[in-house]
Every structure is written in structure tokens, then in C-alpha cells.
Design a protein that fits this description.
- The protein is α+β, with helices and mostly antiparallel strands.
- The protein contains 11 helices and 22 strands.
- Strands 2, 11, 12, 13, 14, 15, 16, 18, 19 and 21 form a 10-stranded mixed beta sheet that branches.
- The longest helix has 14 residues.
């Protein structure tokens, strides 16, 4: 039996896993509010969202996620919405949410979604937080004449080859990238930029994303990925060095709020596992301007969006655009830190409500998420349980990602997460001390 004692990683650079044309966009950032006002565990909705109680929301999902279970469903309940969940995994959702109306549906097929909704109660909103379902959801919502993302923008964000082509057309966001079709011989592919990053064209969660140094490694990893993903198209793009960060935005097609971002610490190459996120209330203005210009080029601006980018010598370049909330409990920590009803705001936008000019977000706080990661395959034989702690001025939450007794291979993705630590407090040093101390007292035992 091997014991993995976690310690804080040193600082380094959802596994399944439009709208009408936007008008003038106003960029806004959170306005000050005294940091001494502690946020409620689940903030209330906007005081004047209009009458939405009793309206019918169709929520599309694949596997259950924390964002849906702890964010969007509670927000829908607060708003008084009637919710029907469409999914291809109904039993998993019924087990997690007894009493919720759950319908079986091939949610990856927009025709199936439209047919299922048409056979039931008329919709007032169609929404999904899944990476895989944004285009389908946009098409279904548009069919019923409801507020939605532009399906073209959703497709550009999801399809990494399409995203690169769209950004390259602007001239300012060009990244050398080549696409490998599902039936194409990788040995015949020309123009691969070494070193490069090889990834599935429509992947998520860093699954099968790997740093490649030469042709031999490229051919080997192409074969390995295709063995796991038959029929998947791949993308090889130039490796972008620099500091990795995120920008979190919320828009209604007329106004776009910036709700902050994170600095991301990754595992050592050749893999790209996110090990830590540290909240950044405001990235440098020139960086934000470059990222927002890229989002404009892609047509992104309705609803919530999580954008990953890298900054090198002052130049921001897009890694990927996830047209949904950040996930891996990052959205949960944003709601707690900012003291705003983030999830309710997202749902209200999809119900056709305008965002307020001022979200009333608290400023002056700090937050961090850490993800203890399995370093080997095997069975988890011992691990800490859930925890909700107050450590001085810091509020810390730990949630396991695996149950004791589960056996897993080594995925080299966020499916290797053993749990999530999220903490908020008045300043970064206090938050860092609390998280470091908590992790130092925990251990996870993995038996091969």
C-alpha cells in the first residue's frame, strides 16, 4: 500500500463529460462594497428580476455536476421556476435530486431535444451548463423563439479548430494550428508546429491534452488518443508559454460584466492538469482588452463564459473558450466571494431579463481552490471526508471527488482529482495559510 501525503504545490506557470444580435456592449467591473459584509451562503436573486415564478425552465445535462446540483438548481428554486431536466443519464440525476422532474433524452441531438420539449409543457427558457451541449441548447432555444446564445458562437467556442480559424481572421490572435481529421493519417500531416500541444478538437477538462516535442511523440500520442477516442478529430497547435489565467464574464447581449478571474497553476509538462486556482479581481487592463476583443471576434457575450488565456511579454493569447460557468467549484466560490446571486443572474438572462448595471459585488476579498491529485492508479483505501471549517477569518470547504473503495486508472486529467478545497477570506495570505495548513494535515492512501 502506498500513501500519498499531499503538500501545497509550488507556484508554476466537466470530464464528460442565438441570441438576437447584441447591441452596444458596456464593460463593467464589480463596484465596491464593504468587505466586512459577509456573503450569505446562497445569495438571494436580483431584487427586481420581473415575475419569473412559475415559468418553466428546461435544463439540459449529461452527468451530474456541482454547478447544476449546488448552483443552478438551488437558484431556480429561489426564483420559483418549474424545472424539467433533460438528460441521457436520468437515473444518476434522479438519485441525486429526488422529486425533480427528469426526462430521458438524447441531449446531444437538437432534434431529439426539440421533440422532447414539444411533447411536454411549453418552455420559457432552455439552458445548459455543459460544454458539450451549448450548440444543441442554443439551437433548441432559438427554435422556440427564446433568448439564447448564437449557436454559431457556441460552435466556435466548442470546436477548437473553428475557434483558431475565427481568431486568426482578426490578425491579432493568430496561433499556428493544424487539424487532423478523424480518418487522416497523422504521418501525412504537414505544418505541425513543434513544440506543440495535441488535443481533441472538441475535448474538455484537459483530457488527452499533451505537450509534444517531436514527430515521433506526435505519432505515438495520436495513436494512443485515437485508441481511446475512435473517430475523434484532433488539433495540434503551437505551445504558448507564459502565465495562465482565466477571465469570467456574464452578459445579456447588451451589457457584459467582468466578474473577475483566476491565476492557474498547472501540473508539470507534458500534461496540463489544473492544480490550483487563485482569484484575481482584475487582470491588467491591456490583458483584459485583448481577451475581450477575442470574445467579440467569436461572437461570445450572452450568458456566462469561462475563458482561459496565457500572457507572455504582455501579449494575451486564447487557450480556449468555455461558453459556460467555470466549473470544478470555481463558480461556487465566485458566488460566495462576491456575494452575488451568480447562478440566478445566469438563469434570468436566459429568461430574457437584462442584467443590472451594477451587480453589487463585494470587493476586497481573496479566494483559492486546490485540487489534490492522484499520482498513481489504484484503489482509494483511506481519505478525508467532507469538511466545512471556519479558520479565523477564512471559510474553508473540502469536498471529496472519490469515495473510499473506488478504483481508478491514472487519467492525467482532472478526473484524477481526489477532492476540492475552496477557501475565501479577507486577504490572500490568510487564505493561503488556511489552505496550506489544511492540506498538510490530510492524506490519501492509494493501493495499487
Amino acid at each position: 500500500m502506498q500513501t500519498m501525503q499531499t503538500t501545497p504545490s509550488t507556484d508554476r506557470t466537466e470530464p464528460v463529460d442565438s441570441t438576437r444580435p447584441p447591441g452596444t456592449t458596456t464593460r463593467t467591473t464589480p463596484s465596491p462594497r464593504p468587505p466586512s459584509e459577509a456573503p450569505a451562503p446562497l445569495p438571494g436573486p436580483d431584487p427586481d428580476p420581473g415575475s419569473v415564478s412559475g415559468l418553466h425552465l428546461y435544463l439540459l445535462a449529461l452527468n451530474p455536476t456541482d454547478a447544476v446540483s449546488e448552483g443552478y438548481l438551488p437558484a431556480a428554486a429561489q426564483l420559483g421556476l418549474d424545472v424539467t431536466l433533460l438528460t441521457d443519464q436520468p437515473e444518476a440525476h434522479r438519485a441525486r435530486h429526488p422529486g425533480l422532474t427528469v426526462l430521458h433524452c438524447d441531449v446531444r441531438d437538437h432534434h431529439a431535444v426539440i421533440s422532447t420539449i414539444s411533447a411536454h409543457r411549453a418552455p420559457d427558457a432552455v439552458f445548459s451548463n455543459s460544454d458539450h451541449l451549448q450548440t444543441v441548447t442554443a439551437l433548441a432555444a432559438d427554435y422556440f423563439g427564446l433568448p439564447a446564445k448564437d449557436w454559431r458562437a457556441a460552435l466556435r467556442a466548442k470546436d477548437k479548430a473553428q475557434m483558431r480559424r475565427a481568431l486568426a481572421a482578426t490578425g491579432d490572435h493568430r496561433v499556428h494550428s493544424v487539424e487532423l481529421a478523424a480518418d487522416q493519417d497523422p504521418a501525412a500531416l504537414t505544418g505541425v508546429p513543434y513544440p506543440c500541444v495535441l488535443k481533441p478538437r472538441e475535448g474538455v477538462a484537459s483530457e488527452d491534452v499533451v505537450h509534444i516535442g517531436d514527430e515521433a511523440a506526435f505519432l505515438r500520442h495520436c495513436a494512443e488518443i485515437r485508441a481511446r477516442r475512435p473517430g475523434a478529430a484532433l488539433v495540434a497547435e503551437e505551445y504558448l508559454p507564459g502565465e495562465l489565467g482565466t477571465l469570467e464574464t456574464l452578459g445579456d447581449g447588451h451589457r457584459l460584466h467582468i466578474v473577475g478571474g483566476f491565476r492557474t497553476d498547472l501540473s508539470p509538462l507534458p500534461y496540463f492538469i489544473e492544480e490550483r486556482l487563485t482569484y484575481v479581481p482584475a487582470h491588467p487592463a491591456p490583458v483584459v482588452a485583448q481577451v475581450l476583443a477575442a470574445l467579440d471576434a467569436l461572437g461570445v457575450g450572452f450568458g456566462v463564459c469561462h475563458t482561459e488565456f496565457v500572457v507572455h511579454h504582455g501579449r494575451a493569447r486564447i487557450i480556449e473558450v468555455n461558453y459556460r460557468s467555470i466549473g470544478d467549484q470555481g463558480d461556487l466560490i465566485l458566488q460566495r466571494l462576491l456575494g452575488i446571486p451568480l447562478f440566478a443572474h445566469v438563469l434570468l438572462v436566459h429568461l430574457g431579463r437584462r442584467l443590472p448595471a451594477d451587480l453589487g459585488a463585494r470587493t476586497g476579498g481573496a479566494a483559492r481552490l486546490d485540487y489534490p491529485v492522484a499520482d498513481r492508479a489504484g484503489t482509494l483505501t483511506a481519505a478525508p471526508g467532507p469538511a466545512d471549517l471556519t479558520l479565523g477569518d477564512v471559510t474553508l470547504t473540502y469536498r471529496p471527488a472519490r469515495a473510499v473503495g473506488e478504483r481508478h486508472p491514472l487519467y492525467r486529467t482532472n478526473r484524477d482529482y481526489l477532492g476540492t478545497v475552496r477557501a475565501t477570506g479577507p486577504d490572500q495570505s490568510a487564505v493561503d495559510r488556511a489552505v496550506t495548513g489544511f492540506l498538510a494535515r490530510q492524506s490519501w492512501e492509494i493501493t495499487p
